[in-house]
Amino acid sequence: KHEDLRYSLGSELVLLGLKASEQLDVKELSASHLSYLKETLNETAALAIWGAQGPFFLRWEESDRVVNIGVRAGSQVSIVKSAPGRLFAAFLPEEKTAELVRAELEKYGMDAEAFYEDIRRVRENGVAISQGTLIPGISAISCPVFGQNGEIVAAITVVGLSGVLDVGLDSETVKLVKEQCRLLSGSLGYKQTVGK
After folding, report:
1. What angle do CA 18, 31, 16 make, to 5 degrees?
2. Residue environment code for 53-79, b if the CB has 16+ CB neighbours within 10 A, otherwise e
3. pLDDT given at position 66
4. Tell me, what's the pLDDT at 12?
5. What is the DSSP string of 28-68?
6. At a CB cut-off of 8 Å and minimum separation 6, what does 70 contact?
7. How confident is the model at residue 119 (pLDDT cuts 50, 70, 90)?
8. Residue 8: is it exposed, middle or buried by C-beta count within 10 angstroms (0-12/13-18/19+)?
9. Gyration radius (Cα) of the chain, Å
10. Which residues are CB-contacts of 54 (< 8 A; sequence separation ≥ 6)?
11. Are 117 and 143 in contact (CB under 8 A)?
12. For the chain, what percent of residues have pLDDT higher than 90?
């Protein structure tokens, strides 16, 4: 409350509004990037965001291939087994992911040290790749989308058949996904600094 009896929004409300606006913006602005990836690669392209219970798909562009993997917009996916989950584990602050990671590592009997080594590589390479870990025979490539504050706000993921989808770190597919993520991040106000 100001001296002249007017009120202004507190910083927490402003940040909450920006966060909500960013989520709406990323969903709407991602449409052309997902369509481009789907058309160029003829693979399924999806947008995932972080929710209260971990990563879930917000938008899903199905490829023309006759493959149904049973994942759609609204589907929640594993943080430790999925490409977007591991990407969020790598780029979100650890306090946001630690409890869910711990629970899933225990649930799936996975080694924490090996998982965190993988997360370090994901952060270093700017891409998470899964090959049959979530769904046998299905591979995925996931790259981060950053908001104006430099934090990850979403992940663009390309999903395809293992052996068909080229998941090599230097592959054209990975380069295209990274490029579309950079473009979408720029549309959201992210200014890339050297080394990021």
Report:
1. 10
2. ebbbbbbbbebeeeeebebeeebebbb
3. 60
4. 47
5. HHHHHHHHHHHHHH-SEEEEEEEETTEEEEEEEE--SSS--
6. 135
7. very high
8. exposed
9. 18
10. 76, 77, 78, 79, 85, 88, 100
11. no
12. 55
Alpha-carbon torsion angle 129, 29, 67, 162, nearest 10: -20
Of 136, 10, 24, the residue nearest 69 (C-alpha): 136
**Mean per-residue pLDDT, 158-185:** 91
Q: What are 114's two structure tokens?
A: 């090996």
What's the rounded Cα separation, in Å, for the pair 183 and 147?
11
pLDDT of residue 164: 81
DSSP letter for each residue of 106-119? HHHT--HHHHHHHH
Answer whether 140's CB lies under 8 Å from 114's CB: no
| Whether pTM exceeds 0.90 | no
Condensed to tens digits (0 to 9), the pLDDT of residues 23-82 reads: 448 888 898 999 999 999 988 899 999 998 899 888 877 777 666 565 666 677 899 999
Question: Strand pairing partners for 45?
Answer: 61, 158
Q: Average of pLDDT values for 2-6?
A: 53
CA angle 95, 96, 98 (to 5 degrees): 60
Amino acid at 159: V
Quote the tokens at residue 48: 């995932």
First to last CA, the chain: 40
